[in-house]
Amino acid sequence: MSEKLLTGLKQSNETCWNSTFIMLKSFDESYQQIQVVSQKHNQEDRLSNIDSSVFKCLINFLHPFYDATLFFEGDRYPTIHRVYMWYVKLQITMSTCTTDSPLLMFLQKEVPWHYKKDLK
């Protein structure tokens, strides 16, 4: 089916830090095309269990981490002076708000725990 799309879908892989974000963003950008192609081939049932609000929530949550990674990849300019700024920005991303969805609250709670566990 992917050969019928205008752009190829990106896949997640173990070695690329941001591959999950890139994969979800690619899927989001092609979602309407995927729906059209699925309908043409009578395979719309493949998308029936996909809730677009879930992958949009994941994209929004992961985006600041992606931005931080790209910023700190810079080897032609100093970045150490920005570490604290990005730390605060990512802490805000992981702060819960009463209007957050249950999925987002779960991510905000679990991601710091896994990070701290991996540092030990």
Provide a brief overview of the structure.
This protein has 120 residues and is mainly α. The chain is 60% helix and 0% strand.
Would you kindly provide a written description of the structure presented here, covering whatever features stand out?
The chain is mainly alpha-helical and 120 residues long. The protein folds into 2 domains: 1-50, no CATH class; 51-120, no CATH class. The chain is built from 4 helices and no strands. Helix 1 (19-40) runs antiparallel to helix 2 and helix 2 runs antiparallel to helix 3. The longest helix has 22 residues, at 19-40.
Secondary-structure map:
Layout: H1 19-40, H2 52-72, H3 83-93, H4 102-119
Low-confidence stretches: none
Q: Estimate the mean pLDDT confidence.
A: 83
Radius of gyration: 17 Å
Taken as a percent bin, the fraction of beta residues is: under 5%
- What does the largest sheet look like? none
**Computed structural class:** mainly alpha
The end-to-end span amounts to 44 Å
Q: In DSSP terms, counting alpha (H) and pi (I) runs of 4 or more, how many helices? A: 4
How much helix, percentage-wise, in residues?
A: 55-70%
- From the spread of the alpha carbons, the general shape counts as flat
Order of helices and strands: HHHH
Number of domains: 2
Number of beta strands: 0
